[in-house]
Amino acid sequence: MAEPALEAVQEQLARCNRCGYCQAACPIYHITRREDATARGHNEHVRAVLAGELTLTGDMEPAFAQCLLCRACTAHCFPALPTDRVVTAARAAFNRRRAGAAVEERVMRAVLGDRGRMERLVRLAYFGKRSGALRVMRLLRWLPWLPKGLAEVGAMMPEPPASFLRERVAELNLPARGPRGRATYFVGCGMNFGFPDAAEDTLCVLAHLGYGIVIADNQCCGLPAYTHGHLDLARELARANLRALAEADLIVTDCASCSSFLKHYEELLGDGPQAAEAAAVAARARDLCEVIEPEMLAGARWEGSVTYHQPCHLGRYQGLAERPGELLQAVGGLEFRPLPEADWCCGAAGTYAITHYELSMQVVERKMSNVAATGAETLLTSCPACLAQLAYGARRQGVAARVCHLSQLAREALEGA
Predict the structure, then answer these.
(1) In this structure, are 285 and 298 located in the same domain?
(2) What is the DSSP track for 175-237?
(3) CATH (domain of 252)
(4) Is the same domain home to 308 and 364?
(5) Per-residue pLDDT of the chain (417 residues; tens, 9 = 90+)
(6) From start to end of 284-365, where are the E strands?
(7) Is the dihedral of CA 336, 341, 344, 346 positive or negative?
C-alpha cells in the first residue's frame, strides 16, 4: 500500500548518515537505552518500509509514539534532519491502519474545530477537579488499557481560573490603536483555558509597549492534530485560521507552540491554492518574546532570582533560544540564573504526560533537579504545556520555585518601573 505521508519525507531520510549523534541528545533514549527510540532508529524503520524491506505493523508504532518531537536530535545532527517530520509522517501512516484512529480524528475535529464545545469540555474537567471527581480515576489505575496519566490528570491540571481569557476581553479596555501599530493576538487554547491570567498579562504588556490590540477570532492552531498524525485535520484548522488572520498586520501569541505552528503554515499548506496566504500568515506571526525588545524594558524593575526553561517550540523550532535571556538581563534588580540543560524538553509534549506518564515523569524529574540546583525563586517559561508540566513537577519533587509565564514577569517589571 502506498504511503503518501512517508513518501513525502523520503528525500529527508536520505540525509541521515547513521552517525548516532542523536543518541546523546534524545531524552527518551537516555531513559530506555533503546535504539528504536532514537532519530536514527526512526529513520531506518521508515527507510526500510519505503524500500519494501519492512511492513508497517502495529508492533512498530510504540517507538514512534514515544518520540517527544522536541527536535533535540535535529540540533545534534550535522545535516539537521527534521526527524519530527519523519515521526509525524509515520504516525499519519499508522493512522491509516490503526483501529480507532478514525474515531480519534472525529473527536479531535469536533473539539478543536468548535471553541464552544471545547469550552464546555474544559468546564466539565475543571468541575471534576474542584469536586474531587477526577480522583476516582486513580481507582482505575489497575486497568491495563487505561493510560496511567489519566489517573493523574486531575493533579496535573492547573487550578481552575475564575474565568477564561475570551470572557475577560470586554472588561480589559484594550486600546484599538497605538503608536507601534496594531497587534492581532492569537488566542492559544492552553492560554485561554489554562492560564488566562498570564494571557491577560500579555495583553497588558502589549498595550504598555504601545500596540493597539485586536483579539483574533481563531480556532486551535492545529498542532495537536498534526502531532497525532491527523494531517488533513491540521490543514483544515490552518485554513480556518487563515481566514481569521487575513487582515492582521502583526500576529502575536504567548504560546510558543502556537507561534511555531503558525510559522509552519507555509510548509503545511505550501502546495495548495492557499499557499500565498499561508506564507503571509507565517511571515507575520511572532512569539511574544520577539515583539518585546530589550531596550523596551529600560527602567523596568523586578526584584528576585529567576531561571528560564526553554520550550522546544521556541528554541529549536523558532531559533529564539537566546531571546528570553536577553530580555531578562535587561530588567533592573533581576538576578538571572541560567538553567542547566535549559533546552531539554520538560516532558509535556502536548498529551504525552497522559499517554506516556512514566517516561514523562522521568524527563521532568531531571528538569526539576536542574531547577533546584539553581536555587532560583522563580521559574519562567513561554508555553502553557510547559507551565502545567513544570508546576506539576515542582509539586511532586518539592521544588519551591514559583512557576510562571514570561509575560507575568514582564508586566510586573514594567509596572515596577
Answers:
(1) no
(2) -S--TT-EEEEP--HHHHHT-HHHHHHHHHHHHHTT-EEEE------SHHHHHTT-HHHHHHH
(3) 3.40.50
(4) yes
(5) 568 899 999 988 989 999 999 999 999 999 999 999 999 999 999 999 999 999 988 889 999 999 999 999 999 999 999 999 999 999 999 999 888 899 999 999 999 999 999 999 999 999 999 998 887 777 666 666 677 788 889 999 999 999 999 999 989 989 999 999 999 999 999 999 999 999 999 999 999 999 999 999 999 999 999 999 999 999 999 999 999 999 999 999 999 999 999 999 999 998 888 999 999 999 999 999 999 999 999 999 999 999 999 999 999 999 999 999 999 999 999 999 999 999 999 999 999 999 999 999 999 999 999 999 999 999 999 999 999 999 999 999 999 999 999 999 999 999 986
(6) 285-287, 301-308, 332-336
(7) negative
Cell numbers for 256: 510558543
Domain of 369: which CATH number? Answer: 3.40.50.1860
Q: Does residue 115 share a domain with residue 44?
A: no
Query: Same domain, yes or no, for 404 and 321?
Result: yes
Grid cell locating 377: 525563586
Domain that holds residue 270: 165-291
* Same domain (yes/no): 44, 109: no
pTM of the prediction?
A: 0.95
Residues 267 and 320 in one domain: no
Domain containing residue 37: CATH number: 1.10.1060.10
DSSP code at position 310: -
User: How many domains does the chain contain in total?
Assistant: 4
